[in-house]
Specification:
With about 800 residues, the chain is an alpha/beta fold. The protein contains 28 helices and 18 strands. The chain has a 9-stranded mixed beta sheet with strand order 3-2-1-4-5-7-6-8-11. A 3-stranded antiparallel beta sheet has the order 12-14-13. The protein has a two-stranded antiparallel ribbon with strand order 9-10. The relative contact order is 0.06. Among the domains are: about 1-155, N6 adenine-specific DNA methyltransferase, N-terminal domain (Ferritin, Up-down Bundle), CATH 1.20.1260.30; about 620-725.
């Protein structure tokens, strides 16, 4: 059985719990990821001749299992497992598994490492067949762990990880998809961290490419090498050293090697960048013709290193703090020279608090040396508002990523979002590239109309601002508004309470909703064969790309509704639910739909892919209805008992002697009745108790019937799961689960649009409903009444 991605991630994260306490996440990530690496290469390559990764005999994960519980486990892991693997694969700076300071000493270390190995010993974590063709599950798990480690590491400790969403943007706009690549095509990252940026670019290439990276931190360089192997790029070259002082990629003349594509996320505003660098006489000519960066800020030092390392037609993307766009002095001179040379193709402003090492806003600088001499403008995007909250950080959504990539690659100009800024305009601004100078993304201020407050009516300017709605429903405006007694103002033709009904029932608005449904139905009809045709070893990532792009294309035909909002619904559902389902199908086939899984409690169970509710809705609706009827009867008996307790409670509570810790029970009631049944004084109480007894019996009978009916239904369900044929599974999973959810999401988006229009019109109507003169009259009238009351009470108000 294929393990769900979500289950894989949670299982791996459990391993981190074994290490918390002795060190922070920036340190224990090394141990967990090394163990993940050893498990992976052991499953994939142990005993395989001519494998790209060597697993020496005696150094596999199975050999590590044999070390569990041994007093020398830490030292044995170092010498018998990690040492030979590192030597065979030229891996350096591996973590010390015998470090008592971090892992505890004696029995504590033995228990911690034993438990850690046991977690990876889970049979479900078998990576030998983990890959559905083209989909690297373990690589994705690695990325998941890196994100969590970066989150937990806190400020200044997350520099080893670039958020995957940002990496995807950079990979998609650097231009590698637009050229015919070969294995000789080179991709380079001078500050590669864990290597995520390099991998994302390689994924976008048409063919395998040559990967090069350099990283200053020893442990992080080791992580990057392992990451390359885990993502099936074992030939990638990762060097360790300070790129600025000791660049490791040089040509035969000791000059900087030049690359086709470069991506980078250098440390922001690196203060000690000049250590070991003779900037005035730089051996590699990086600053010649541009200027020397400030001694305490290395942003432009890294940027100029990248520019110098690009081939004559080379292209690059680099993340830098927003300040590089507008800071003065030496940086202003460098920026001016770069612009004049035409090397900057574009700038994308990103949201603040996006990166793990800092909360400051950053930008992506897009470099392109090809046709630089003819470049007349710089394409800018202000995506500072394109994000969602994710814990204490911001995060790009799928729709944000796609919009940025679409707009940049197609050079689409959108109001308040993007535009091509002529270099001549930039020159008039003294080569300041601060994006808000050129793109104002601020929402228009909701201006209060003084005349409308004085005289009433709704300003036409506010109604005009809702033009996107009038474009799809031209006569709706006339239905809602009529001309007022003066120009530039209108009046509502209906009461505020009728606004929602009028909008929702208007023929043009209803027709627009019908068009939305048609677009979704057309997409559904086109893609149902793909979804119902999923086969073993299909590529889930290719599938979601195809159907999501088709959805985006379909909704591009419609005004008003945002195609990226619809796209987000699909991708959110994919990552939350659908992805696990599809991976199960491509590994285990459609029979996975027959499988059931045990719950946390005894006798609890649920369908692996298809919930019991879906089976019940399609095949056992009558049985479910019968149970619901019994539940209604049971609830009615309970309600009647509660009413009796309320009616006969109070000061003279007839049930007082029958109440126990769990309320009124049949046992307590029986005992009390025996005491009073022969006493004529309690004649009336006995009638009440007998009636209450009857309700208890009826409730118990209903509960018994419900339990029996649920048991019978459960048996029918289990039998039905086993008997499901492939067509039935496809109907339940694709039609009843996936498509029904997405259809509901589209309806929700349409409702949101409708509610937004209704809310705005109500807001305007209420704002100007009572003009100031009317308010003054009302105040005067109320004041007069107060004064009259005061006079009657003998008080003078004059």
């Amino acid at each position: 059985m294929a393990i769900k991605k979500s289950e894989l991630y949670s299982t791996l994260w459990k391993s981190c719990n074994e290490l918390r306490g002795g060190m922070d996440a920036s340190q224990y990530k090394d141990y967990v990821l090394v163990l993940l690496f050893i498990k992976y290469i052991s499953d994939k390559y142990a005993g395989v001749p001519f494998a790209p990764i060597a697993v020496p005999e005696g150094s596999s994960f199975k050999d590590m299992i044999a070390l569990k519980g041994k007093p020398t486990i830490g030292d044995d892991i170092n010498k018998k497992i990690i040492g030979p693997i590192a030597e065979a694969n030229k891996l350096s700076e591996m973590p010390d598994f015998n470090n008592a300071e971090k892992l505890g000493g004696g029995k504590d270390m033995v228990a911690k490492l034993t438990n850690l190995i046991a977690i990876f010993e889970n049979p479900a974590l078998d990576f030998s067949k983990n890959k559905a063709e083209g989909d690297d599950i373990i690589g994705d798990a690695y990325e998941y762990l890196m994100r969590n480690f970066a989150t937990e590491s806190g400020k200044s400790k997350g520099q080893f990880y670039t958020p995957a969403e940002v990496s995807r943007v950079m990979a998609n706009i650097v231009g590698i998809k637009d050229v015919k690549t070969t294995p000789q095509t080179t991709v380079y990252d001078p500050t590669c961290g864990s290597g995520s940026l390099l991998l994302k670019v390689a994924d976008e290439a048409e063919t395998t490419v040559s990967i090069y990276g350099q990283e200053m931190d020893n442990a992080t360089a080791g992580l990057s090498r392992m990451n390359m192997i885990l993502h099936n790029n074992p030939t990638a070259i990762i060097e360790r050293e300070n790129t600025l002082s000791t660049p490791r990629f040089l040509d035969e003349h000791n000059r900087l090697r030049m690359f086709d594509f470069i991506v980078a996320n250098p440390p922001f505003s690196f203060k000690s960048w000049s250590n070991g660098v003779d900037a005035t006489n730089d051996t590699y000519g990086r600053f010649q013709g541009y200027g020397i960066p400030p001694n305490k800020n290395g942003d432009y030092a890294f940027l100029l290193h990248i520019v110098r390392s690009l081939k004559s037609k080379g292209k690059g993307t680099v993340i830098l703090p927003h300040g590089v766009l507008f800071r003065g002095n030496a940086e202003a001179g460098i920026r001016t020279n770069l612009i004049r040379k035409g090397y900057i193709k574009g700038i994308i402003g990103l949201p603040a608090n996006l990166f793990y090492g800092t909360g400051i806003p950053a930008c992506i600088i897009v470099l392109d040396k090809e046709n630089a001499g003819n470049r007349k403008g710089i394409f800018m995007i202000n995506a500072s508002k394109a994000h969602m909250k994710d814990g204490n950080k911001n995060r790009l959504r799928e729709q944000d990523i796609h919009k940025i990539v679409d707009v940049f690659n197609k050079q689409i100009e959108l109001e308040k979002y993007s535009r091509m800024v002529p270099v001549t305009e930039i020159e008039t601004n003294e080569f300041n590239l601060n994006i808000p100078r050129y793109i104002d993304s601020q929402e228009a201020e909701d201006i209060q109309d003084i005349e409308a407050h004085l005289k009433g009516d709704i300003p036409n300017a506010d109604i005009d601002d809702l033009h996107s709605y009038w474009d799809v429903s031209p006569t709706l405006r006339k239905t809602l508004f009529k001309a007022a007694g003066r120009t530039k103002y209108s009046q509502l033709t209906i009461t505020p309470d009728e606004i929602k009904t009028t909008i929702f029932s208007h023929p043009e608005f209803v027709d627009y909703g019908r068009k939305v449904n048609i677009v979704f139905s057309e997409w559904k009809s086109k893609n149902l064969p793909k979804l119902k045709g999923i086969k073993l070893n299909d590529k889930p990532k290719k599938l979601i790309h195809e159907i999501s792009e088709d959805l985006l294309q379909g909704f591009s035909k419609l005004k008003l509704i945002d195609k990226y909002d619809i796209y987000q619904h699909l991708l959110a559902y994919w990552f939350g639910t659908m992805q696990d389902d599809v991976y199960a199908l491509v590994i285990d086939g459609w029979d996975a739909g027959k499988e059931i899984e045990k719950g946390a409690k005894k006798n609890e169970w649920e369908g692996r892919l298809i919930s019991k509710e879906l089976i019940i809705a399609r095949y056992f609706a009558k049985e479910k209805e019968a149970i619901e009827k019994l539940e209604t009867e049971r609830d009615d008996y309970i309600r009647q008992m509660e009413e009796m307790e309320e009616e006969h409670g109070g000061e003279e509570d007839v049930f007082a002697e029958c109440r126990g810790a769990k309320g009124i029970t049949k046992t307590n009631l029986n005992a009390y009745v025996k005491k009073i049944k022969k006493d004529p004084e309690f004649k009336d109480e006995l009638k009440i108790f007998n009636e209450y007894f009857g309700l208890i019996d009826k409730e118990a009978g209903a509960k018994k019937q419900i339990k029996e009916a649920e048991k019978t239904l459960g048996e029918k369900l289990k039998s039905k799961y086993k008997a499901l044929n492939e067509d039935e599974i496809k109907g339940l999973l694709v039609d009843d689960k996936w498509m029904a959810t997405l259809e509901k999401d589209v309806k929700t988006e349409m409702d949101r649009i409708s509610q937004r229009l209704t809310g705005r019109i109500k807001e305007l109507a209420e704002r100007y409903e009572t003009p100031l003169p009317d308010l003054s009259k009302e105040v005067d009238g109320l004041e007069k009444k107060v004064h009259e009351h005061l006079e009657k009470m003998g008080f003078s108000w004059k």
